[in-house]
Amino acid sequence: MQANRPDNVQYASCRVLLVEDDEPLRDRFTRILASWPGSCLVAACATLAEALACLRSQDIDLLITDLRLPDGHGTQAIRTLRRLNPAAEAMVISVLADDATVIEAIEAGAAGYLLKDADSFELLEAIRELRAGRSPISTSIARVIVRRLSAPADAPRPALEQALTPRETEILQGIAKGFTYAELAEQLGISRQTVPVHVKNIYRKLEAHNRSEAVFEATRLGLI
Amino acid sequence: MSAGRRIAWFALSLLLAFLASLPLWLHLPEPKSALAIGTASCVSGCEETSPVRLPLSWRERGGQAEYRVEFSLEQRPSQPLYVFIPVLKQRAGIWLAGRQIADSGTQALMTGVTSGSTMLAPLPADDLLEGVNALHITLQAAGLTRGYLSKVYVGTADQLAPYYRLRTFLLEHLRLMVLAAQLLACVAVLVTWIYRPRDELFGWMSLLLVVSLLSYASLLADLLPRVSSLLPYALMLNTATGFILMIIALLVNGSRPPPWLKACAAAVPGACVLLALSGMASPYAIVLAIGTPILVLAPLATLAISAWGALAGKVKEAWLLLVPLALLCMATLHDGAVAAMWLDGPVYIAFYYRQAIIIAIAVILARRLGISLLRLDGANAHLKQRLAQREQELARLHEEERHETMQRVRSEERQRLTADLHDGLSGHLASIIALAEREHSPFIESSARDALDDLRAVIHSLDIGDRELAAALSGLRERLERQLKRMGIALDWSTAHLPEISGVTPTHALNVLRIVQEAITNAAKHGPAAHIRVSGKAGLLGQAVIVIDNDGEPFLRGCGSGLRNMRRRAIQLGGSVRIEALADGTRVTLTLPRRLPDPPRHAGQPA
């Protein structure tokens, strides 16, 4: 019966990898994901090593990872995933939506985040939104990114500001000021649903910019 | 310079020039009512043949002569009579009836080369006869001097004394006053130069004033006869003043004096002295042949230099030197004419006019000092202004730095707290939520959720800076949206029209968030509402007004601890909370001032 729902048809092949070191939380997320017929939970790992092994051995469409792991950092898993399968998506599990580590994860390639206390409804909606090309953003995240935009860049580095379109910059600034999606959409004359699409593009540019900066840094240090 | 000041300066210059030129053309008054004797007969040693017309002037320098003048009295005088010789040169003795009645050499102070003397002597009544009386006058001139004898007057004290006093003043006292003035100027310039040795002009001025004191050597010779043999040497050394004057004029013009001129100032007098000492020429001959031409020509050359500087170089100070120099040159020419006997008169006046140069030097000195002080004042004012600007700048930078430091400390604190939360407390709370859910303990789960939300509020508010109230509220919205969604309550949120208010601190932000949260929690729990609307707008006075409407039960008067807390927090914010019942719900209105009060020092921790 449920197979007839468009969601399920669309995401029938969504292979999910969960990485969370805290047992009750891992258990909880596992239960929630298991209750979602559209997904196929490939594995629920507690360490980075397990996660990396799993990533290398299997195809993953969606990585949901905690950042602080006993043997490393979740961003490594995200980078590995994005390198192996650029079409795959990654979400981070964080206790705060404005944590600096969330930005770090976004720069590593994550396009969404989950709060640790997210209930099943929130979790599944977040996954659905992400799979539909829409990313969440909080005021705090927007503020951090806007701050980076206004920070003076070193001359030879590619400026992040140049990578963003004027519309994307407007959206970032509006969110940072505390506007809701609805207010922002009205102000910019776009649909409310378009805002998170722009946000995802912004995240992708952050990732690309971060990668180019890493290359730049490596070149500068003579590593490449 | 304004036209008025220009005219004033011009008028003053004319007046000074007029006064300064008086000696050149003004003749001293002669006694009118006294008996004037205009002829003399020669007794011995005279160049002229008798009778001689008075005043008489010798052609030769030095020497001695005796003259006889006669006057007749109708009767023996009832009052004491005096004989008055307005000007003589250089020393005279007066004899009556074979007795000497006066000797200018013992009376007059000034018997020097350039000055003349005046003489007033009482005629002993016993020796005066009715009819013709004869006075014998012996006249002496020493060295370079030519003898001179003016008319002779005989009269009462009343008739003669004023004229005598005037001449005594001019020929003796005034010269001493001039000497005193020169000494004073000499000290002033010397001290100035000592304190400012790098100013070459002051050095040369000092030298001029010191060296020209040598021209008083004749006075010294009068006082100390022993040094009179040194007199020609003093006059030789005095020739240095001619060169020094030229150097000063060049310096005033702003030009660099040629080294040979400086060398001349020492070499010429030195050569003269050596020449005299070697015995190749007599000292007086050297003074006449070298010293006098230099002292006549040097002022003329200096006049040309200053005129060039004043007219071509547009140097204002050159004018100050030019006018006295012009007067000195006139006086020098006058003296030259007197010496050549083209002009009548025994008194050389150049001596007086040299003081005009000294006055000019003093004026230039004072002017330079005044200008320096003015510049100093200007520089002081400028520096003070600069200092004030720098202080202001420093204060601003300090304030900025303090602010940045505070920001950094706050940011570091927040990062530390966030890290702690992330690693510890929040993870545990999230675990508790998961466990409570698994164990089906809804109360524990709800409490843990509340605790986690509260922690998030604290963390979030720590990052709030001034004028960022909307951002703080937005963080609250993000948290509440999730809760209310779970509870099935619709949240309508609009803070786009909320005015920016200043003075926002993390403490203030947290207080605002707690009030709004309390209002929403009350509506959700006790309302019970299906729809909550939060809107921000500006008050009439520009205050920030946050209105929380819900469609639950209309508010009934009560005083729960929640309401008390809301009011207490609003008071801390300098604002107010109003709770009112609507027809179909309740409205909470929070009004905040345009500027939130500064937090008390001890209230650093969020309440």
Topology:
The complex is a heterodimer of chains A (224) and B (607).
Chain A: H1 6-11, E1 14-19, H2 23-34, E2 39-45, H3 48-57, E3 62-66, E4 68-69, E5 72-73, H4 74-84, E6 89-94, H5 100-108, E7 112-115, H6 120-131, H7 139-150, H8 160-163, H9 166-177, H10 181-188, H11 194-221
Parallel strand pairs in A: 1-2, 1-3, 3-6, 6-7
Antiparallel strand pairs in A: 4-5
Chain B: H1 3-25, E1 35-37, E2 39-44, E3 52-53, E4 56-73, E5 81-89, E6 91-96, E7 99-103, H2 104-107, E8 117-123, E9 131-149, E10 152-156, H3 157-195, H4 200-211, H5 217-223, H6 231-238, H7 240-253, H8 259-278, H9 283-311, H10 316-339, H11 350-423, H12 425-438, H13 442-462, H14 469-487, E11 490-494, H15 506-525, E12 531-538, E13 544-550, H16 561-572, E14 576-582, E15 585-592
Parallel strand pairs in B: 11-12
Antiparallel strand pairs in B: 1-10, 2-3, 2-4, 4-9, 5-8, 5-9, 5-10, 6-7, 6-9, 12-13, 13-15, 14-15
What attributes does this structure have?
heterodimer, A: 224 residues, 11 helices, 14% strand, B: 607 residues, alpha+beta, Jelly Rolls, Heat Shock Protein 90, ten-stranded antiparallel sheet, five-stranded mixed sheet, 19% strand, rod-shaped, disordered C terminus
